[in-house]
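Can't paste images in this forum, so I'm doing it all in text. The chain is below; anyone willing to post the predicted structure tokens underneath?
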Amino acid sequence: MSSTPVSPDQDAVKVTISVLAKGLVETHRHIVHDRKILRQNHEMDFNLRRGLSLLSAICLKSGYSIDIGCQPNAFTVLAGRPVGEWGPKPFATCEDKNLVLVDAGCGVPTQECRDVAASEGEAAEDIFHDRLRSASQRLGARQSGGAYTKVREFVVRNPCLPTAKLNEFVQDFPEMASDIMSFYRPLPHSAPHGRHLNLCAGCGAPLFPSHDSSSYPSGRCAIRECRMARPSPSLKCPPIQVDVPDAWRLADNAVLAYWVGPGLPEIELFDSIKSRGDVVLYPFSDAADIGIGKTAVGIDIKSYSSATRLGLHFASKCEGLRMFDRRIVAVPDAWLRQDRDYLHTLKSVAGTRFALEFKTISATKREFSV
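Text version of the structure:
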């Protein structure tokens, strides 16, 4: 049986999305490492410039009234929404229509954007995971796994904290102190409301002042997974007076997007089932997010806006889950509220090569709660 042919328009959309993803990832890398800003000139990353040109061509061919490829800064704002919402008709009907390229809260490429940008068979670079693994390995084989878990858990549970608390924590890991400190930055001046800091009850990150003060009187959370689970933010505690902003630290934007956001459902699931007694967080230095019964069950929690992209991710690789007898990939329930066919698409695209089970976090919680 022959496969369904791909139309020229859809083929062009696929190429455009891939090139844009590469451009966004490279641009972010330049911003982080070279301290550059996004400019619409010869300094712009080649892939981003090329992707925007391809996007402009599709807009023109589709009779789209706005050339959304001519303004890179405006495009990065649009890229915080699913591609099917901001592009011309070919984007609205492509298989990646639910793909979100930029984390709107943290201003960094999403994990699925990084996956699209990666060359075939190559995992996207994750400098923070690599840095933590390398740092923990300096403690020796017997201590490295435990140190990795403690640091990851600490960062997820404390995305924003007093500098004194961070200094106290790193004293337990002197060999890793500089690496742990590098995961945080000074509190931005845009975070406090005047001289008060509002922390989110859902994640502990700042609720940044919003122009839409009627909808977000206490501020708006920057972490996507938290906003999905709790559309109406609430305060973790009464507003904290901040006379000296340097007395507080906030996780790096990439850490917020790639560790804290995905880590919220990981920690929530772990806390709900840890009373079993045989549950481990980030076993074997993150072979899975949660391990049950040593190697009996491995649970990996993935928060991708696009079920297709997540399916492709697991169609070619099993990652650390191969260490476990039973392999579960759990996804936040919020994605199913936006796309009721999410699990069906995910299973059909991923296939059965690695014997993976795909479930919602709520279903996983019900199965393993005591």
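The chain has three domains: 8-97, 127-253, 256-368. Residues 77 and 104 are 7 Å apart (CA to CA).
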